[in-house]
């Protein structure tokens, strides 16, 4: 089993790159309003500060500062990505491994 090392510092600032699985897609800019709504909704329930963010057609670069006492950025990304995915029509082909894990074929893993 592969284990990933992650920084786990409450209140720290983190840099992220989040990619679409299909790097030829432009879902993020085509559905920018939806992405903003998903981020806003998660941010209301699980606050964090967006220091900077660049949204390109196939990936996002983000610089976030987590609140004091909280380092759980992975939960926030999971909620944002799942809300965005659920709101899109299911048109992407799914591999059996994604079906087993109940994943959409939208986001690149890790």
From TrEMBL:
Task: Using the record's annotation, list all stretches that form the Transposase IS200-like domain.
Answer: 9-110
A GO MF label: transposase activity
A biological process (GO) of this protein is: DNA transposition
Which domain of life does the protein's organism represent?
Bacteria
Query: What is this protein identified as?
Result: Transposase
Its lineage opens with:
Bacteria, Pseudomonadati, Pseudomonadota, Gammaproteobacteria, Thiotrichales
């Amino acid at each position: 089993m592969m284990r990933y090392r992650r920084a786990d510092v409450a209140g720290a600032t983190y840099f992220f790159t989040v990619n679409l699985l299909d790097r030829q897609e432009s879902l993020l800019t085509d559905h920018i309003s939806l992405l903003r709504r998903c981020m806003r909704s998660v941010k209301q329930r699980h606050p964090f500060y967006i220091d900077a963010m660049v949204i390109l057609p196939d990936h996002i670069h983000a610089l976030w500062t987590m609140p004091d006492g909280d380092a759980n950025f992975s939960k926030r990304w999971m909620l944002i990505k799942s809300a965005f995915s659920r709101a899109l029509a299911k048109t992407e082909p799914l591999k059996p491994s994604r079906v087993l894990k109940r994943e959409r074929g939208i986001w690149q893993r890790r």
